[in-house]
């Protein structure tokens, strides 16, 4: 991946003066877990109609769009789902994306269930730089209750080791905390990964989509999570790695690593959001809480040139005014939203 300077790339800014720097690409709407806060079985059961293969963007189409996004200022690409590793031959896509001139970071978010040592090594060799693994408890019974498919936590913990051994670093853990479900997991999660060169990021339960039964009273504020950990192992705040980073960072004063807090509900970070999301069927979504997307698949499967697509994307971003989290309480009840399982977290 080339480190082409930003000065050589025209900067596209939206109506709130936010640049386009991050692209999340959901490669599939399918997942082998049925996490209760994301893809509950009552909705995503055996009769649920997932996208047919013909509607998914091909790897060539994804790479073409990614290259155009990079020409507009994107420097980070993250592969998501669904569960991205259920898509066949994902290494091929990674290899193609890694060759894009100007792309600086290529990462993936996964539930870890399919991240074997061989798969981790293969992804690293293809050009993947790092992974984030979703894990909501280290207690096996609680973890199985949350993934709702009886999948053992030991297999995910082995995936963390596989990622570290393959050099997919830094390895981060995303832990969604829902009151009354897994708030008991906060300290055990922090304890397990302290000193292991792994950062756990605790995420407030969010109202993404319409199927997870979100209620404000089920949210444990990030500050409360922070206080619990700090009481056990004193913490100190540290500066973000880069502007626009969604997690606030804290390190253990005893030098045993760090944790992060992602507090979209209680501390909205809309003003720093530089992310666009591409759905499996080619819809561009400019906010995690978006109600609809813009169809890019018809452009890449039609006669539009790269420059025409580029101009279209530039226009879309220039007119972006998303700031859902800042409006959540007063103006958004009942707003239909795209499911998180469809466009990634």
Record the SSE blueprint:
Layout: E1 22-26, H1 59-71, E2 76-80, H2 90-98, E3 105-110, H3 117-126, E4 130-134, H4 140-147, H5 153-166, E5 171-177, H6 186-193, E6 198-204, H7 222-232, E7 235-238, E8 248-252, E9 258-262, E10 275-278, E11 283-285, E12 294-295, H8 297-300, H9 306-318, H10 324-331, H11 340-343
Parallel strand pairs: 1-2, 1-10, 2-3, 3-4, 4-5, 5-6, 6-9
Antiparallel strand pairs: 7-8, 8-9, 10-11, 11-12
Helix pairs in contact: 1-2, 1-9, 2-3, 3-5
Describe the structure.
This protein has 345 residues and is α/β, with parallel strands linked by helices. It has a domain at 6-173 and 273-343: TIM Barrel. It has helices spanning 59-71, 90-98, 117-126, 140-147, 153-166, 186-193, 222-232, 297-300, 306-318, 324-331, 340-343; strands spanning 22-26, 76-80, 105-110, 130-134, 171-177, 198-204, 235-238, 248-252, 258-262, 275-278, 283-285, 294-295. A twelve-stranded mixed beta sheet has the order 7-8-9-6-5-4-3-2-1-10-11-12. Strand 10 (275-278) and strand 11 form a beta hairpin. Helix 1 packs across helix 9 (306-318) and helix 2 runs parallel beside helix 3 (117-126). The longest helix has 14 residues, at 153-166. The protein is globular. The two termini are 24 Å apart.
Q: How helix-rich are the residues, as a percent range?
A: 25-40%
Low-confidence stretches: 2-7, 329-333
The N- to C-terminal Cα distance equals 24 Å
User: Strands of the biggest beta sheet: in what spatial order?
Assistant: 7-8-9-6-5-4-3-2-1-10-11-12
Structural class: alpha/beta
Can you count the beta strands? Answer: 12
Largest sheet: 12 strands, mixed
Instruction: Tell me the fraction of residues in β-strands, as a range.
Output: 15-25%
Query: Secondary-structure element sequence?
Result: EHEHEHEHHEHEHEEEEEEHHHH
Report the mean per-residue pLDDT as an integer: 90
Q: What is the fold named in CATH at topology level of the domain at 6-173 and 273-343?
A: TIM Barrel
Can you identify the CATH superfamily of the domain at 6-173 and 273-343? Answer: Aldolase class I
């Amino acid at each position: 991946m080339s480190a082409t300077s930003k000065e050589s790339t025209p900067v596209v800014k939206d109506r709130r003066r936010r640049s386009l720097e991050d692209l999340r690409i959901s490669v599939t709407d399918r997942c082998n877990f049925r996490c209760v806060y994301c893809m509950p079985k009552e909705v995503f059961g055996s009769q649920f109609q997932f996208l047919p293969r013909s509607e998914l963007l091909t790897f060539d189409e994804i790479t073409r769009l990614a290259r155009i996004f990079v020409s507009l200022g994107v420097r980070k690409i993250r592969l998501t789902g669904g569960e991205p590793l259920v898509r066949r031959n994902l290494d091929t896509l990674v290899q193609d994306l890694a060759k894009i001139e100007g792309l600086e970071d290529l990462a993936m978010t996964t539930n870890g269930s399919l991240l074997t040592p061989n798969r981790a090594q293969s992804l690293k060799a293809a050009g993947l730089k790092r992974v984030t693994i979703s894990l909501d408890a280290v207690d096996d019974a609680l973890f199985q209750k949350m993934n709702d498919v009886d999948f053992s936590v030991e297999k995910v913990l082995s995936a963390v080791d596989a990622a570290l051994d393959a050099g997919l670093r830094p390895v981060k853990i995303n832990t969604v905390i829902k009151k009354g479900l897994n708030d008991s997991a906060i300290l055990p999660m922090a304890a397990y990964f302290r000193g292991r060169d792994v950062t756990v990021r605790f995420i407030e339960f969010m109202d993404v989509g319409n199927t997870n039964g979100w209620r404000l009273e089920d949210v444990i504020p990030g500050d409360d999570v922070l206080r619990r950990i700090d009481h056990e192992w004193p913490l100190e705040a540290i500066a973000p790695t880069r502007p626009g980073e969604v997690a606030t960072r804290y390190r253990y004063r005893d030098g045993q690593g760090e944790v992060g807090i992602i507090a979209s509900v209680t501390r909205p970070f809309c003003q720093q959001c530089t992310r666009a999301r591409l759905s499996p069927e080619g819809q561009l979504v400019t906010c995690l809480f978006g109600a609809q997307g813009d169809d890019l698949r018809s452009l890449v499967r039609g006669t539009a040139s790269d420059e025409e697509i580029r101009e279209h994307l530039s226009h879309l971003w220039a007119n972006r005014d998303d700031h859902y989290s800042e409006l959540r309480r007063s103006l958004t009840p009942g707003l239909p939203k795209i499911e998180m399982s469809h466009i990634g977290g």
